[in-house]
Amino acid sequence: MSRIAARFAQIRSEKRGALIPFLEAWDPDGATSMAILRGMPEAGADLIEIGCPFTDPMADGPTIQLAGRRALDAGASMAHTLAMVREFRREDDATPIILMGYLNPILAYGPPRFCTDAAAAGVDGLIIVDLPTEEADLIAADAARNQLDIIRLVAPTTDDARLPHVLAGSSGFVYYVSITGITGTRTASGDELARAIPRIRAVTDLPVAVGFGVRSPAQAALATRHADAAVVASALIDTLAASLDADRHATAGTVRAVLDQVRTLAAAVRGG
Amino acid sequence: MIQSSPPAGANSLRNGPDGRGRFGEFGGRFVAETLMPLVLEVEKAYDAARADPAFQPELDAYLKNYIGRPSPLWFAERLTKALGGAKVYFKRDELNHTGAHKINSCMGQILLARRMGKTRIIAETGAGQHGVATATVCALFGLPCTVYMGATDVARQAPNVFRMKLLGAEVKPVTSGAGTLKDAMNEALRDWVANVSDTFYIIGTVAGPHPYPRMVRDFQSVIGDEAKAQMHEAEGRLPDIAVACIGGGSNAMGLFHPFLDDPSVRLIGVEAAGHGLDTRQHAASLLRGRPGVLHGNRTYLLQDEDGQIQEAHSISAGLDYPGIGPEHSWLHDIGRVEYVAATDDEALAAFQLCTRTEGIIPALEPAHAIAHVAKIAPALSPQTIILMNLCGRGDKDIFTVADALGVKL
């Protein structure tokens, strides 16, 4: 069983929601983001999403755009991101790692070599924002050969007629983009989630994670009342950004500030 | 009356894109799932419009009576004499309403938006020509319009910013990245994803997710269709060479497409070499880039080893883009179109040459095409005919040119 399937099976048996915190690789530098990654499982992360910096993140709001900029300025690269996962796996062989990013850096790396290296580093799944189902064959075979799940995105605009097409051959879990908009802007209401999640459940047995606009512990708890997991990204990066000094460098409090927030969010999805 | 081109046969180079929006391996629909249903909806609506016998006549009436088409074909006699070789003709698309070819496609797209019941229009712009053209058709049809423009471009194209505002558009400066066309397009896509129900995105060039590269090409092909008929009238034959400048590549695609199946016509696209192809400050995606995915399509891009997109540079804001339309990438790879480049300095010299010999102030974008014509024409025989697309007028550029020439206005 894959790490993702095993982790969701465990969470279901515990009858609770899962927390998927996000960090941007190398934001604001390699060592700080490595320390955050390493501390996340203990702080309550059930799965972890690592953002791969890209110059043109067209689905992201200002918070993640700036995180990507800081990371690239610090020297981020796809190879560095994979090295982080490799290092993480020395201590943790259970927490699933999902890389989230845009297609071009993967194309530049070369999809076959990227999938081989990612799997070898200990990556479990990929979320490629600008790779819709229609274009997924570009990497699907390489991913499958390496047991990497391609996590499909479903949006409020994905209607019932399109849903089975989007979810055909999907694996891992389903990522529900809960708003029409970019990351870190609006938040879906409970009513919207109550309508949307059953639509997805009618088509797939895979776990469903809710992302985009989940910021507070209350919102994370709400998301996991309807879905299996909540993804929190921009709110954590806002915390990280607020902890930086005037030159946008990490301070002594940066890692702790982010991990404390992960703890609060984890308590919320556990009903605490 | 403009002759429309005959239908393409099985071996035609004019059959693209395929059902997945591909020209060879280029093009496609690389957008987030949130946008995917919209992109499919635009494709469906565009297919329906093309099948509707009422659509093209409606568009033709606006092209004729509002935009002023057909644009003339002009024998540039003094320029020809000055260069001392091939006979140079200009396709005068700078005489269109709003002063550039951009409005050809804006008109087609806004008619489509109206058919789709969309009530709000967004656009990106570099030099501001596409923004002005979009703001113009929005004023004409009474639709609210938001134009995203890089902050750097807002500063260097102030007259166009004011024009857009006069036309009732909201101009949103974009400060991410280098604040140029690429960043404006990112921001327009972000707006679209947040306003999916009521908004139509009028893309300015032959790029973006399918069906945009095809749709914009179709709307711009009026340039080549007209030029072909006009050249037949003027010279009784096809031109030997057709030349156009390339940023995203819409004016070039519009000129070239009707000639793709005429093998005797040499097609030349001129990229912006900025400070030089061997510097890092140029916008030559085909000559110095490699294939990748940006803004919804797979195409040649200026990018680093890690797939990060690099900033382009050109004295011309309209060519200042690190990508290019996917059909150009395909035409490059199969060798049907030759792609060359002209530097900022060469474009500036050509700008002045054209102004003084023809009394036409060209935009800095087509000044790149003129620069290439000036390079090749002297060595060609007087029987050789060059057709060049003069795709925009240069009023918007006089401040940039004055600055480059060290003149204080």
Characteristic terms for this protein:
heterodimer; A: 272 residues; alpha/beta; TIM Barrel; nine-stranded parallel beta sheet; 12 helices; 9 strands; 46% helix; globular; B: alpha/beta; four-stranded antiparallel beta sheet; 14 strands; 42% helix
User: Which geometry of chain B do the CA atoms define?
Assistant: globular
**Low-confidence segments of chain B:** none
Give a short account of the largest sheet of chain B. 6 strands, mixed
Radius of gyration of chain B: 19 Å
Instruction: Work out the number of β strands of chain A.
Output: 9
SS field, number of helical segments of chain B: 16
Number of strands of chain B: 14
Helix/strand order of chain B: EEHHEHEHEHEHHEHEHHEHEHEEHEHHEH
Low-confidence regions of chain A: none
Q: What is the overall shape of chain A? A: globular
Strand order across the biggest sheet of chain B? 3-4-14-9-10-13
CATH architecture of chain A: Alpha-Beta Barrel
The residue fraction in helices of chain A comes out at 40-55%
Number of domains of chain A: 1
Helix segment count of chain A? 12
Give the SSE string of chain A.
HEHEHHEHHEHEEHEHEHEHH
Report on the architecture of this protein.
With 272 residues, chain A is α/β, with parallel strands linked by helices. Chain A is 46% helix and 14% strand. Chain A is built from 12 helices and 9 strands. Chain A has helices at residues 3-13, 30-43, 62-73, 78-89, 103-109, 111-121, 140-145, 163-167, 190-201, 217-226, 234-243, 254-269; strands at residues 18-24, 48-51, 97-101, 125-128, 149-150, 152-154, 174-177, 208-211, 229-232. Chain A has a 9-stranded parallel β-sheet. In chain A, helix 2 runs parallel beside helix 12 (254-269) and helix 10 (217-226) runs parallel beside helix 12. Chain A is globular, with a radius of gyration of 17 Å. The mean pLDDT of chain A is 96. By secondary structure, chain B is α/β, with parallel strands linked by helices. Chain B has 16 helices and 14 strands. In chain B, strand 11 (290-294) and strand 12 (296-301) form a beta hairpin. In chain B, the strands form 3 sheets. Chain B has a 6-stranded mixed β-sheet with strand order 3-4-14-9-10-13, with helices on both faces. A 4-stranded antiparallel β-sheet of chain B has the order 1-2-12-11. The N and C termini of chain B lie far apart (44 Å). The mean pLDDT of chain B is 95. At the A-B interface, helix 3, helix 5 and strand 6 of A face strand 2, helix 1, helix 8 and strand 11 of B.
